[in-house]
Amino acid sequence: MANITNEMIWQAIKELAGQLQQTNRQVEQLGKQVLQTNEQVQRIGKQVQQLSQQTQQTNEQLNQLSEQVSDMNERLTDVANGQNILVEELFENKKEMKRVKTAFNLY
User: H or E element: which one contains 29?
Assistant: First the structure.
Protein backbone atom coordinates (compact mmCIF):
# COMPACT_ATOMS: atom_id res chain seq x y z
CA MET A 1 0.00 0.00 0.00
CA ALA A 2 2.81 2.36 0.84
CA ASN A 3 4.38 1.64 -2.57
CA ILE A 4 1.16 2.58 -4.35
CA THR A 5 0.84 5.79 -2.33
CA ASN A 6 4.48 6.66 -2.99
CA GLU A 7 4.00 5.96 -6.71
CA MET A 8 0.89 8.12 -6.79
CA ILE A 9 2.74 10.91 -5.00
CA TRP A 10 5.71 10.53 -7.34
CA GLN A 11 3.39 10.62 -10.39
CA ALA A 12 1.65 13.72 -9.04
CA ILE A 13 5.05 15.38 -8.48
CA LYS A 14 6.07 14.55 -12.10
CA GLU A 15 2.81 16.00 -13.42
CA LEU A 16 3.21 19.13 -11.29
CA ALA A 17 6.84 19.47 -12.46
CA GLY A 18 5.67 19.24 -16.09
CA GLN A 19 2.96 21.82 -15.48
CA LEU A 20 5.51 24.05 -13.75
CA GLN A 21 7.88 23.78 -16.71
CA GLN A 22 5.03 24.65 -19.09
CA THR A 23 4.02 27.58 -16.90
CA ASN A 24 7.65 28.77 -16.83
CA ARG A 25 7.79 28.67 -20.65
CA GLN A 26 4.56 30.64 -20.86
CA VAL A 27 5.92 33.20 -18.37
CA GLU A 28 9.10 33.52 -20.46
CA GLN A 29 7.04 34.03 -23.62
CA LEU A 30 4.93 36.65 -21.87
CA GLY A 31 8.11 38.33 -20.65
CA LYS A 32 9.42 38.49 -24.22
CA GLN A 33 6.09 39.86 -25.43
CA VAL A 34 6.18 42.53 -22.70
CA LEU A 35 9.71 43.52 -23.76
CA GLN A 36 8.63 43.73 -27.40
CA THR A 37 5.60 45.79 -26.44
CA ASN A 38 7.79 48.13 -24.40
CA GLU A 39 10.12 48.59 -27.38
CA GLN A 40 7.14 49.36 -29.62
CA VAL A 41 5.81 51.85 -27.09
CA GLN A 42 9.22 53.55 -26.96
CA ARG A 43 9.38 53.73 -30.77
CA ILE A 44 5.87 55.14 -30.92
CA GLY A 45 6.78 57.64 -28.20
CA LYS A 46 9.75 58.82 -30.27
CA GLN A 47 7.55 59.12 -33.35
CA VAL A 48 4.98 61.13 -31.40
CA GLN A 49 7.75 63.41 -30.15
CA GLN A 50 9.05 63.91 -33.69
CA LEU A 51 5.54 64.64 -34.95
CA SER A 52 5.07 67.11 -32.15
CA GLN A 53 8.28 68.91 -33.11
CA GLN A 54 7.27 68.93 -36.77
CA THR A 55 3.85 70.30 -35.85
CA GLN A 56 5.47 73.04 -33.79
CA GLN A 57 7.79 73.94 -36.68
CA THR A 58 4.86 73.95 -39.10
CA ASN A 59 2.88 76.23 -36.76
CA GLU A 60 5.83 78.62 -36.55
CA GLN A 61 6.11 78.66 -40.34
CA LEU A 62 2.37 79.28 -40.67
CA ASN A 63 2.63 82.17 -38.21
CA GLN A 64 5.48 83.67 -40.24
CA LEU A 65 3.48 83.25 -43.45
CA SER A 66 0.47 84.85 -41.81
CA GLU A 67 2.59 87.84 -40.80
CA GLN A 68 4.00 88.10 -44.33
CA VAL A 69 0.52 87.94 -45.86
CA SER A 70 -0.68 90.61 -43.44
CA ASP A 71 2.30 92.82 -44.35
CA MET A 72 1.67 92.27 -48.07
CA ASN A 73 -2.00 93.11 -47.56
CA GLU A 74 -1.05 96.40 -45.92
CA ARG A 75 1.33 97.20 -48.76
CA LEU A 76 -1.28 96.36 -51.39
CA THR A 77 -3.80 98.54 -49.58
CA ASP A 78 -1.27 101.39 -49.61
CA VAL A 79 -0.67 100.84 -53.34
CA ALA A 80 -4.42 100.77 -54.03
CA ASN A 81 -4.93 103.97 -52.05
CA GLY A 82 -2.05 105.59 -53.94
CA GLN A 83 -3.57 104.52 -57.24
CA ASN A 84 -6.94 105.97 -56.22
CA ILE A 85 -5.25 109.26 -55.40
CA LEU A 86 -3.44 109.26 -58.76
CA VAL A 87 -6.68 108.45 -60.62
CA GLU A 88 -8.48 111.28 -58.82
CA GLU A 89 -5.64 113.71 -59.63
CA LEU A 90 -5.61 112.55 -63.25
CA PHE A 91 -9.36 113.09 -63.45
CA GLU A 92 -9.00 116.56 -61.92
CA ASN A 93 -6.16 117.35 -64.35
CA LYS A 94 -8.29 116.25 -67.30
CA LYS A 95 -11.16 118.40 -66.06
CA GLU A 96 -8.77 121.35 -65.72
CA MET A 97 -7.33 120.74 -69.19
CA LYS A 98 -10.85 120.62 -70.63
CA ARG A 99 -11.72 123.86 -68.82
CA VAL A 100 -8.57 125.50 -70.17
CA LYS A 101 -9.28 124.26 -73.71
CA THR A 102 -12.82 125.56 -73.43
CA ALA A 103 -11.49 128.90 -72.19
CA PHE A 104 -9.02 129.13 -75.12
CA ASN A 105 -11.79 128.25 -77.58
CA LEU A 106 -13.83 131.16 -76.25
CA TYR A 107 -11.14 133.68 -77.16
Answer: helix 2-106
